[in-house]
Amino acid sequence: MKHLLPKLLIFMIILLTAPSAFAEQTKQNTSELAHEAKSAVLLERDSGKVMYDKNSHEKLPPASMTKVMTMLLIMEALDEGKIKMKDKVRTSEYAASMGGSQIFLEPGEEMTVEEMLKGIAIGSGNDASVAMAEHIAGSEEEFVGRMNEKAAELGLKDTSFQNTTGLPEKGHYSTAYDMAIMAKELLKYDRITKFTGTYEGYLRENTDKKFWLVNTNRLVKFYPGVDGVKTGFTNEAKYCLTASAKKGNMRVIAVVFGASTPKERNGQITKMLDYAFSQYQTYPMYKRNQIISSVKVNKGQNKKINLVTSEPISLLTKKGENVESVKKEIKQKGDIHAPVRKGTELGTLILKKDGKVLQESPLVAEKDMDQAGTWTLFKRTISDWTKWNE
């Protein structure tokens, strides 16, 4: 018994100190994920949960990562039917004059929206970005205004855009966290990864000016699952990257600002992605555009309109944890009047466990609904009156 006491004491010390030692080791490991970057963040796309943070709200020049917002507004316009992939886009003198990375558009040259998007996503074309901005909004200035409006709509308080390209300009800045949220919103549109996830391609294929595009994001080729989103570099910003990768059901967004070299930037993004996929798992709950409920619309062509999810919804946990007993709660706006436009936010889906809110996500109108005509409203009134008096 006398010999067992020292061993028992040692065992108790190990047992008591192991959890704190493990926590300290985990903290140390995560602190090394992006130690060479000015700022960084790692989050899971569907839930928006942050898994790693380093100065993620520090305002810094985003360089060409600015084009994440440019592409977001292009994809929104496509989704709303305001433009189509096959529409022709004419290049102005101003768009063709852009310096920096470009696809060498000439004044008056026309490309389709699809080709322009290819030039932005793969080749980081400043000229293509301005041409698309003018096509959608009439001028780059107007488009930049819409970029800032969208940033405000997303609740991004540390972002200010002065151009569509990321070329250095006073008052043009963002943060790692804000950039991740922009990427989160962009990735709602599945079609975008067709462009951001392509390593190489061509423009002007059937001409003598065939132009080879190589993705500035080399991880698209060298890290399994990476399919976006945008690199950035200026002398002021250094090497930046907003990356997205998907494995199984889990999509991760990793952002790095201010790395000294492309190798450092890619290495730190790789560490963050490895950490996310090794330590966490997701439980998909709903797909985008899935019908969740319906809500009454006053004086609409139909009495009710379906509410659908505005984004994919998943729950994030550490590996080994489960999401049993998750409850769904729906909050709907009241007193809704026609007309209603597709995508208008009309409610909120809330997921809870043991009374704790795990996630909230907007519910939006499934489609447009115009006002009902006078005859329709009259028949509806008669029908309601008849039912009331039965």
UniProtKB/TrEMBL annotation:
E.C. number: 3.4.16.4
SMART domains: PBP5_C (SM00936)
EC main group: hydrolase
Pfam families: PBP5_C, Peptidase_S11
Positions of the Peptidase S11 D-Ala-D-Ala carboxypeptidase A C-terminal domain: 280-371
Any coiled-coil regions, as ranges: none
InterPro entries on file: Beta-lactam/transpept-like, Peniciliin-bd_prot_C_sf, Peptidase_S11, Peptidase_S11_C, Peptidase_S11_C_sf, Peptidase_S11_N
GO MF terms, alphabetically ordered: carboxypeptidase activity
Record keywords: Carboxypeptidase, Cell shape, Cell wall biogenesis/degradation, Hydrolase, Peptidoglycan synthesis, Protease, Signal
Function recorded in the entry: Removes C-terminal D-alanyl residues from sugar-peptide cell wall precursors.
Protein name: serine-type D-Ala-D-Ala carboxypeptidase
